[in-house]
Amino acid sequence: MSRSVTITEYFDLPETVPLIDVRTPAEFEHGHVPGAFNIPLFTNEERVKVGTTYKQQSREDAILLGFDLTGNKWSGFIRTVLQIAPQKKVAVHCWRGGMRSGAMAWALGLYGFEVYLIQGGYKNYRRWVLQQFNTPYKLLVLGGMTGSGKTHILHQLASQHQQVINLEDLAQHQGSSYGTLNKMVQPTQEQFENNLAQQLHRQNKVQPIWLEDESQTIGKRFIPKPLWVQMRQSVLINLQVPHEERITALATEYGSLDKAFLITCTERIHKRLGPEQTKHAIAAIQENRMEDFVRLVLVYYDKTYRAGLSKREQGMVFNIQADSNDAVHNAKLSLNFVNQNASLHKA
Prior knowledge:
single chain; alpha/beta; Oxidized Rhodanese, domain 1; Rossmann fold; 2 domains; five-stranded parallel beta sheet; 17 helices
């Protein structure tokens, strides 16, 4: 048995129902609903053949070719779905809610599954994703210069039951030239948006949501403009951590990284650092003088941060002086400030 539901109706189901994405591995890798399982009806190459047949011959010929290509796969599909959903209740989608998902829903329904068929497929899901970025939220933006420990503070706020979205974690990048830390791989832009939209959807819209202050780009990923505009217009809690504390924290973090990686990243920003600063920074890396290296590159990053700060509406910027880089203490400072200024919740 199958019935058609919108993506919103699927998300609002009272129980968790596994979602089966029957698009090709390449389509799935480019972007998918977070948590979905990929059981491709066709391989990447098979889909091309079916599409070409549809365009050059006819819909009927494409359908026949599709059945030829999948004829001996159906028992395997059903067994795989049984492993995912032993209770025999699933949702299914393809690109537009067409033949691929319809065929899978029919086969699973014939076997006895209760199937929710997503109307409009992944295409409609992407419309839903973009709608999330146009929804108004009560944002609290945590700011501070590089090395202020903002990510650690967000973790502390989350542990205190605050609503937090970690944009750098979603983008798998820490925002600077060194942001991959030589180990993180960024998702596609589409997947970044999908993951972000899912987290926004889970938040209580009437309660504040903490985000880290970011430029619109995080590595090679872009914060969707409607959300980024909201961030720029929201209250900014600007944590002012002592300069030397920031240097020590960054030197510790970067000290374990591969020197060749650090040098390559430094060379990438040589035009903004200047030739002398770049030369001295690379020498410091090579000689393992990490605090000297950090001190040199912070000149550029601090200047950039101040420039961004100056473009904000100053009445929405609230400075908090911190004595150290202690994340637990600074999370408490930030939260106490917001709780003592109730109007910030309504800003």
